[in-house]
Amino acid sequence: MHRIAIIGAGYVGLVTGACLASSGMPVHCCDIDTEKIGKLSRGILPIYEPGLEELISDCSKPGKQLVFTTDLKKAVTNSDILFIAVNTPTLENSRCDLTHVFEAAVSIAGVMDGYKIIVIKSTVPVGTCRLVKQRISDELSRLGKSYGFDIVSNPEFLREGSAISDFFNADRVVIGADNHDAADIIKSVYTENAKCCCPMVVTSLESSEMIKYASNAFLACKISFINEIASICEHCGANVSEVSEGMGLDNRIGRQFLNPGPGFGGSCFPKDVMALAGAAESYGLEPKLLRSIMTVNSEQTARMIRKIEAATGGLDGKTVSILGVSFKPGTDDIRYSPSVAIIKDLVSRNAAVRVYDPKALGNLKKENPELKVRYCKNPYSCCSRSDCVVLATEWEEFADLDFEKLKSIVRQPVLLDLRNMYPPDYVKKLGFYYEGVGKK
Ligand code: UDX
Ligand code: UDX
Predict the structure, then answer these.
(1) 223, 229, 256: which to mutate for ligand 2, most atoms within 8 A of CB?
(2) Is 129 known to be catalytic?
(3) Residue 122 has pLDDT above 80, yes or no
(4) Which one of 67, 132, 156, 317 has the fewest beta carbons within 10 angstroms of its own beta carbon?
(5) Is 268 near ligand 2, meaning CB less than 6 Å away?
(6) How many helices (H) and strands (E) does the chain have?
(7) E-assigned strands of 310-425?
(8) Is the per-residue pLDDT at 52 higher than 90?
(9) What is the CATH number that goes with domain 4-203?
């Protein structure tokens, strides 16, 4: 039975550790954040991810497989396979910050007590795994240790809000390695233990790292593409939902990731497209398409703000209600959320902004303590006396809003549906001015 350590108990590390532990493997989930580990040891999760609380509760009962610790030495010496899942944020120059990855790697070398397979699960630029290998070798030599180890690249393709399902129903597992024996061991973690029956793509370290970036950049490209098509639809009278439907039936295109909105957010797409473009430029290339993905994306959010300004006849002193703050439904994550960018811009232009989100208000308040918005307890109080209601994140609970009730509490019946969540005719019949994205 493989013994697993997860270094970095974040959105990715926690899900990976819990899913591997639920397959029966002993897992030590290690983090430098003592408060986070303390809470996890008491069954309190630092993040919201559907199903994760139950999964962790099942696996971390006394005598069960999942252990939370800040003691790296304990995690490493009780494990043979070490997953590095620390965060890789973006630096000012749009490059990927690998500090945490290198620190984790060198710290592992400092406590190694024998052969290990070190798996890089964090999203890292092409070439990073080889750099990590060198850092570990150098540290082992410095310490006079001669333990063997292998580096394996195993990028994650988990979507927040469906991460557990994405783990067990992955379309593929990507494994990059120099050493095929190490690759086979990681394959067995997924096939024999986690019972994953999807294709296993075993390739080089560099190709594995690139598969992750290229996949995210392509998905982001699909979103910017449909957002641009939506803008054209608004001028030519086409309905972008029907266009997406018609396009998506072509199996070379596929229907997913063709939903227009306020722009893509999250801890991955913005960061990964920027990092890939930065890497291309470091090779002296000009990544025109990658740059355009980001330009279209930031312009899309600006376009939403112009819609709100036009619908209210001017923002100063107007009350704008924002339904949805997280970057997508099913998560409390507000990293790079277009809704947050919209809220900040509206506040800066003297609108009175009321916000509601089923899960993400705590993060909004924690990350922006000075932000002058009214935090509301439910969608209706959020819409009270509103001059413009903005549906920014398509949470399930917004699907069956009582529009009759809404009509009676707003000041102006104006609805901007930035996720095309509602049937326009139905809302208009109730007397609302309705605008979606890519449709009238
Ligand atoms: C993950 C991947 O690691 C990242 O590469 C990908 O681009 C997005 O998903 P994520 O899980 O979202 O990142 O990061 P985060 O939720 O910030 O969690 C990272 C955890 O690592 C934090 O809990 C942090 O405390 C921990 N950490 C960071 C360590 O334990 N050690 C470190 O040296 C640095
Ligand atoms: C993404 C990738 O999907 C996942 O494979 C990778 O491992 C991590 O990054 P995530 O960022 O969690 O996952 O969510 P995702 O569902 O991809 O949505 C990303 C952003 O794109 C969200 O802001 C979402 O609202 C937006 N989006 C998505 C659209 O605007 N339109 C779409 O059709 C799909």
Answers:
(1) 223
(2) no
(3) yes
(4) 317
(5) yes
(6) 17, 14
(7) 319-323, 352-356, 374-375, 388-391, 414-417
(8) yes
(9) 3.40.50.720
Q: Tell which one of 31, 86, 103, 267 to mutate to probe ligand 1, the residue whose CB is within 8 A of the most ligand atoms.
A: 86
Residues linked to residue 84 through DSSP beta bridges, in sequence order: 7, 120
Closest ligand 2 atom to residue 338 Cα is: 23
Going across the sheet that includes 200-203, the strands are: 66-69, 27-30, 4-7, 81-84, 116-120, 149-153, 173-177, 200-203
Ordered by start, the domain boundaries in the chain are 4-203, 219-435
Would you say residue 186 has pLDDT above 80?
Answer: yes
Say how many C-beta atoms besides its own lie within 10 A of residue 200's C-beta. 18
Backbone phi and psi for residue 315, each to the nearest 5 degrees, phi listed first? -85, -25
Q: Which pLDDT score, from 0 to 100, does residue 298 have? A: 97
Written out in words, the top-level CATH class of the domain with range 219-435 is alpha beta
In CATH terms, are 4-203 and 219-435 the same topology?
yes
Q: What is the mean pLDDT of residues 165-177?
A: 96
Q: Which residue's CA is minimally distant from atom 6 of ligand 2? A: 157
* pLDDT tens by residue, 59-114: 987 777 999 999 999 999 999 999 999 999 888 777 889 999 999 999 999 999 99
Residue 236 is which amino acid?
A: C
